[in-house]
Design a protein that fits this description.
- The protein is of the alpha/beta class.
- It folds into four domains: 75 residues, GMP Synthetase, Chain A, domain 3 (2-Layer Sandwich), CATH 3.30.300.180; 157 residues, 3-Layer(aba) Sandwich (Rossmann fold); 72 residues, Helicase, Ruva Protein, domain 3 (Orthogonal Bundle), CATH 1.10.8; 90 residues, Chromosomal Replication Initiator Protein Dnaa, Chain: A (Orthogonal Bundle).
- 54% of the residues lie in helices and 10% in strands.
- It is built from 20 helices and eight strands.
- Strands 5-6-7-4-8 form a five-stranded parallel beta sheet, with helices on both faces.
- β1 and β2 form a beta hairpin.
- α11 crosses α12.
- The relative contact order is 0.07.
């Protein structure tokens, strides 16, 4: 090498790697620092492709690094040792996020018409309908959270369908958080950040499912933060979903959590008995499966976790029924669900709820069923009514009968009050979940 030591060259490469990591390629170690003469530092590339990449993207970084390492005002030139005829121009390989997001894939089954509403999801459903009819104005951002299989993806896709119907020209981008992260990594590796940012920041509606997977990805969080700000300032709609509320997502920057809470945060809970009944009937009708009421109630009692498992149970019943002339009876449903489901089928009773709540709050059963209205008695009574409403198949009137003959409006008010407190108070929610698990 003429005038360039191994130490200086190592310093130049180190400078580029530290300050311009997005531009670094593995073949940089194969570059040959040919000579430094008359203020021009010549670097030899192995082929035409390398020379073009260096000349197009790395001229300023290498010049800056060379000046820092030598202490001289030098310029950099990249060249090839042997001249070859330029190859025929090849079409630019499309980026994955350009191909994947040109046509968003929405399930035709995930519409608002196919979604079953109930006390567990009414707020989230209403918010999504409002956003679908007025994106960027109703609730922005909209953050939906809940456990797996409760309908978050269904609501997100239904909102996209509604926006498409109301605003055919709207640019919608719907994808998972994992896809967003993979697209970002690809853009960094291929030096296509400008294309990436243009794709994500020039949409009317951005919908990202399972945003909790952004946790522990610092550079992806940084990019999403700026994307969020750009869209929000332009009054473009942002819809996110996660398996927990924003404040409980681990390893997510506070500034992102703050922005997730700017709009409406809506929780989806596990479906109550009445909602599970409605889901089963709707799914069965969609598949042409005729179910007697006793089978519907049996399945709703066995499967209490989420709609996805209810749908799986119906598929098992449908498959088994096809082998028995299509007739569905209770014994066939028991066989289809299997021994595991049968052992789990232990309906919660109101007396069991009363026993669990009196034990937890240290009150007497007679007081809960009395007309006393002191807070120490009224609050545990409301908790009992809420649990009876969500964990049993009793009607409002039947539940009221267990508590001194109270009418259905009192039970409904109690259930709604406890549900609201459950959403607002994490400590109370944990206590309520503990009682529910002990009963189930």
């Amino acid at each position: 090498m003429d005038g360039v030591s191994n130490t200086v060259w190592a310093d130049i490469l180190a400078h580029v790697r530290i300050h311009y990591p997005d531009l670094v390629r593995g073949w940089f170690s194969q570059l040959n620092p040919a000579r430094l003469e008359r203020g021009v530092f010549e670097i030899q590339a192995a082929n035409d492709s390398q020379q073009r990449y260096l000349s197009d993207h790395c001229l300023r970084p290498f010049t800056e690094a060379a000046q820092a390492a030598t202490g001289r005002l030098v310029t950099v030139r990249f060249y090839q040792l042997e001249y070859r005829e330029p190859p025929e121009p090849q079409p630019h390989a499309p980026l994955a996020f350009e191909e994947e997001t040109d046509h968003i894939l929405l399930s035709p089954l995930y519409t608002f018409e196919q979604f079953v509403t109930g006390p567990c999801n009414r707020l989230a459903h209403a918010a999504c309908v409002a956003v679908g009819e007025s994106p960027g104005r109703a609730y922005n951002p909209l953050f939906i959270h809940g456990s797996v299989g409760l309908g978050k993806t269904h609501l997100l896709q239904a909102t996209c369908h509604r926006v498409r119907e109301a605003f055919p020209e709207a640019q919608i981008l719907y994808l998972s958080c994992e896809s967003f992260t993979n697209h970002f990594i690809e853009a960094v590796e291929r030096g296509a950040m400008h294309t990436f940012r243009y794709r994500y920041r020039h949409v009317d509606v951005l919908v990202i499912d399972d945003i909790q997977f952004l946790a522990a990805r610092e550079r992806s969080q940084e990019e999403f933060f700026h994307t969020f700000n750009t869209l929000y300032q332009l009054q473009k709609q942002i819809i996110l979903s996660a398996d927990c509320p924003p404040t409980e997502i681990p390893s997510v920057e506070d500034r992102l959590v703050s922005r997730f809470n700017w709009g409406l945060v809506a929780r989806i809970d596990a479906p109550c008995f009445d909602t599970r009944i409605a889901i089963i009937r709707k799914k069965a009708k969609a598949t042409g499966l005729a179910l007697p009421d006793e089978v519907v109630h049996f399945v709703a009692s066995c499967i209490t976790s989420n709609a996805r498992e209810l749908e799986g149970a119906l598929l098992n019943i449908h498959a088994l029924a096809a082998q028995h002339d299509g007739q569905v009876e209770l014994d066939l449903a028991r066989q289809a669900l299997g021994e595991e489901a049968l052992t789990q089928h232990n309906p919660v009773s109101i007396p069991a709820i009363l026993e669990a709540v009196t034990k937890h709050y240290g009150v007497r059963l007679a007081d809960l069923q009395s007309r006393k209205r002191s807070k120490s008695i009224a609050f545990p009574r409301q908790v009992c009514m809420y649990l009876a409403r969500t964990l049993t198949k009793h009607s409002l009137e039947e539940i009221g009968g267990y508590f001194g003959g109270r009418d259905h409006s009192t039970v409904l008010h109690a259930a709604r009050s406890i549900a609201r407190l459950r959403d607002e108070d994490p400590q109370f929610r944990n206590a309520l979940d503990t009682i529910s698990r002990s009963l189930q």
